[in-house]
Amino acid sequence: MEHIVIIGNGISGVTAARHIRKNSDKQITIVSAETDYFFSRTALMYVYMGHMKFEHTQPYESWFWKKNKIELKKGFVKTVDSKNKTLHFANGDTLQYDKLIIATGSKPNKFGWPGQELNGVMGMYHKQDLDNLEKYAPDNKACKRAVIVGGGLIGIELVEMLHSRNIPVTFLVREQSFWNGVLPKGESEMINREIKKNHIDLRLGVNLKEIKSDKNGNVKSIVIAETGEEIECNVVGLTAGVSPNVDFLKNSDLEIGSGVKVNRFLETNLKDIYAIGDCAEQHEVIGSRRSIEAVWYTGRMMGETLAQTICGNRIEYKPGHWFNSAKFIDIEYQTYGWVWAQTKENEARFYWEHKDGNKCIHLNYDKNTREFIGINNFGIRMRHDFFDRVLNEKRSVDYVLEHLADANFDPEFYTLHEAEIAAKFNKENNTNIQLKKKSWARIFSRA
Amino acid sequence: MKAIKHTGIVIFLIGLAIFTGTIFTGSFSLTSDELNTFINQKKYKSEIIKDELKKATVTSEDLNIFEFSSRVRAAYKASNDHYDAQIAKYNLEKNWDKKGEQYQYKIYGKPHTVSFELAKIAGKGYIKDNAGLVWWLTFGLGIIGALLFILPNYKLLGNAGIKNNGIYLESSTNRGFLAWLVLIYLVSFYLVLYFMPDYVVNWTFIFDPISKSLNGGPASQWFVYGFLYCALMLVMATRMYIKYRHNKYQILRTTSVLFFQIVFAFLIPEIMTSLNMPGYDFKNAFPLDYDFFFEWNLDSLKESGAIGLFILVWGIILTLVIVPVMVYFFGKRWYCSWVCGCGGLAETLGDPYRQHSNKSMKAWKLERWIIHFVLLFSLAMTAVTLYCYFTGTQSFLGINSQWIKDTYSFLIGAWFAGVIGTGFYPIFGNRVWCRFGCPLAAYLGLVQRFKSRFRITTNGGQCISCGNCSTYCEQGIDVRAYAQKGENIVRSSCVGCGICSAVCPRGVLKLENGPEEGRINPTDVLLGNDVDLMKLVNDK
Ligand SMILES: Cc1cc2nc3c(=O)[nH]c(=O)nc-3n(C[C@H](O)[C@H](O)[C@H](O)COP(=O)(O)OP(=O)(O)OC[C@H]3O[C@@H](n4cnc5c(N)ncnc54)[C@H](O)[C@@H]3O)c2cc1C
Ligand code: SF4
After folding, report:
1. pLDDT tens, A75-130?
2. What pTM was computed for the model?
3. Are A6 and A29 in contact (CB under 8 A)?
4. Contact B501 A415 (CB under 8 A)
5. Contact: B471, A52; criterion CB under 8 Å
């Protein structure tokens, strides 16, 4: 029986394993150094915040693995010997494979800042980071202030986490406005406001120079590069992005760029070795995507796809339309299709913001053909199905506005803003878009 | 703000302490006249009960309720023992006529219940004389304290939004010491309420004036419970209003359960009683209202003329037509989390404990066995009762009607719904009864699962498997198991509280009523991936 070994028990590795099991009875082993069981990395924040216990982040009960004959092995893979198809573990163990899937995820970036190895400096990626945070920032007595460096999705989550325990937080963001490499101005500024509304000391347009130590090797303060200002703190969170966790492969025969290089079939340069999830780097970018996509959904999609290939139905990784979501403290965000931070040549934009300043939608469409390109929605939930279909069918922005009622996914009884949105659009564009009533027939039609 | 909160909890605890303390106050004794009136009313045939009770209760001693209760119960026991001895004697002598005669002298009924009735007459003391003041010292302080404890959350929780911060870090909501204390208090409360009502007769004195003004009579323990229930819900509803102030579904739902509890379960029945009608809770549907078809209820309805007939017809239509039709259109939520009293308490008082429901597959299996068993039990009991009612027999298929009613009332009505159902909130979550025990929920669940437009829609591929939805599902549904597969949630136990949708950080879940077709949509590959792959795998 063919033995499939998967390094990494994150969403990509586990999805691959589940789908391989569905389609075959191959022997499957999942290896991880981090935890015994698969857990949801995206939920780590809720454990610290006290919304959940760690066990709640585990999507499957422990009997699941036995029942589905998926073996779990805990251990750190030190080297991959592709000639002998053998994994060597840090503790000396070895494991033979017939096919190997590398799904080792990411690790937090550290840019060689002085003091980045001090006690109390941490990223927020692994379970161990969570344990570390609990150790150094259990409450606002042990941690009088925390400084978070790097204004991305994980950065703001870490800010929210510390804030939930009433720990004062300074948030250093290199950009002039939060996440404005991804978010257009309106949305980015809305999040700036949200951060400040929560009494976070937000510093825009600044970089970290160094982290200073007390005499015991603990964090004492940080220094801001631009101003030289020194800020006293007990914890420093480094959340300036992540990069593929592939250091242990550097001496193998695998082709490594930033991540493990793969083709569209998620195959590496070596036969019978594949890579998926955060650690995989496409030779050529797919559509407007990045060559490394460190998000949950793409990891899952790669897992779903690769399972087919492993089980004899060799298919390309062909992700559908881009979508993503996040939550910025109290503001939920979803996106379908593309809304770039900067408007492109062929694009036109429509932006509506609620008067309270905590909800908005941003539509992107082709100014010549009026084809819908994407939407950002903040504080309003939208139906994935709807936008996926709109993008497939290459519908116009007018169609989207007419059918906002079909698209809305807010809980029942929520105030709807469709009329206001359409009116604003009509006024700005001299159009006469009339809202259509919500229709189940349309919502369910599978064209 | 924190100071207000602390003051609030202290005031609340003082109120609670006084309330609990009142049990031990007052003195209980009867005059001969009072006793005679009581005995005449009761039409006891026993020749010795009068003497026994007189010895026990007509006294100048200063008896507290526990002494009084034990004396009264001893008196009844003495009387019954006497006739039991007679019965045994005549039995030995094979004197069947004499033996048969003895039975009429025996006094049936629960000892604590008759003791309660006597105590109601016998009680004297500060509470009875100062009901209004004591109300303020107990309920007044309790309510004010609780509100002071809750209202500052408006500021302390931070901006509107999901703020489950610290739930698993605090003893009271993480099955810690405080949670166990609350459990012990609640369980003791229910045990006393159901099985030793005489011990808390003092509480009823606090409510006599209110009860008289509402229904014309003195307060029973059920009046106290009904009032307490409404007060608890009202106070804890303000907590809900603050916690979910950004979420209209929660606000409306909370208002709805509050309305149905206060108006339908409490006020209307009281007013009906004052008008000499049978007090009836028009929203309480059989088989949750398990004694609807009991003889005493049918008889009482029969005697009440047009209104009685109306209630009878309404009760039957409610269960057979209204309930299932509404479930078809809206899911069982319209009842369980918008109308029902048990649900109402669970969604207000119980909300801080919703995370404790067990999400394991084992618990789900157990749930299906137990709840469907209770449904069958309630139906069997009703069948026996009705058969015996119409044929005038004592038993049906060898099942004694009185026995099965008593057993059901004791096991399901008192222990399951009360002691376990509410008493265990702090440890097993707030819907133990609704999930495992309620026969009406079982019935609604079958309709919801097989013939309904209700579902929780999963938003394509947006789930990140974080687990908030499952954690906060009070019914122990592993919501995430569906959401992470892109599959809608269609489960018989779902009461549609809407909290999964509220706590989901990615906007994945929406409670909806839509066409039945496509409601259940198992998927393997989620939306967002290759269209051809989705076709290949999902259409298989
Ligand atoms: C705090 C946080 C919040 C996030 N929120 C979101 C979000 O909201 N939405 C979203 O789309 N994405 C989010 N992400 C990103 C998302 O979690 C990742 O893209 C995803 O988890 C990657 O999955 P993976 O399976 O590729 O790798 P991982 O989940 O990283 O799993 C890899 C596993 O392999 C193990 N491993 C690595 N090397 C070895 C070795 N040599 N030997 C043994 N084991 C090894 C690692 O320890 C790890 O357990 C978030 C990430 C973080 C950290
Ligand atoms: S709360 Fe939302 S994102 Fe989290 S597991 Fe549930 S459905 Fe998925």
Report:
1. 999 999 999 999 999 999 999 999 999 999 999 999 999 999 999 999 999 999 99
2. 0.95
3. yes
4. no
5. yes
